[in-house]
Each structure stands twice: as structure tokens, then as C-alpha cells.
Amino acid sequence: ELECFAAIISSVETDLVGQAARARAWATGDIAALRAFDYPDIRGDCLAFAASADELDRMLEDSGAQWLGAAEQALAAQPRTFATLDVDNLVSPDGLLARLRERGYEVREPR
Predict the structure, then answer these.
(1) Which of 20, 40, 74, 81 is the most exposed place for a label (fewest CB within 10 A)?
(2) Separation between Cα atoms, residue 11 and residue 5, nearest integer Å
């Protein structure tokens, strides 16, 4: 856990310019810029202690499947709903938002 905390602090200390640029892109809805950024793998760094790589992959896949199931339940109950994801899952071609698109959901990006 201390290594995880150190990785986050190091990222903040060494990438202020990048973080500011990502924040501006987020605030203005610049999806192209959000997709172009190189994101540090803090999740991988922080979860490395938790399990073996195979177990971690399985846990992340299970977590994603649970999120998708909950999202589909919410959308079935309400035509519009709100959920949160980390930016990587929003812009990644294989992230959870992309998986919703693959299932036939309309996903509108900011303009």
C-alpha cells in the first residue's frame, strides 16, 4: 500500500504539466485530447501487491462485468442514468464505455 501511495505522489510531483493538460481536456470535453494522452498505470502499480497477475486480471474482469450489469440494469429502469468511470475506461478502445457501445447502447461524447 505504501508503494501505491508513493507511485501516486510521484505521479503528482513529476507530471503537473500533463495533469493540468488532462484536466483542461476533461473540462472542455476534448475527447480527442483525452484519448491521445499517455496515462500512468497507477491501477496496475497499486494493485500489484494484491494478487498474482492472473488473479488480478480475473478480479478486474469480474469488476468490469459487475459494472456493466449494474449499468444495464440502471438503463433498463431509466432511459438516462449517471455513472462514474476512470478516464481510461471512458476513452480506451476496449474500456467499459466501448463495451457498452458494442452491446448496442448509444454513447454521446461531449461536443
Answers:
(1) 20
(2) 10
34 touches 26 (CB < 8 A): yes
CA torsion sign for 27, 28, 34, 38 is negative
CB 107, CB 101: distance < 8 Å = yes
pTM attached to this predicted model: 0.59
Residues (pLDDT < 70) of the chain are 1, 40-45, 47-53
DSSP 51: S
pLDDT at 66: 93
Q: Half-sphere exposure of 36 toward its Cβ, with a 13 Å CA cutoff?
A: 9
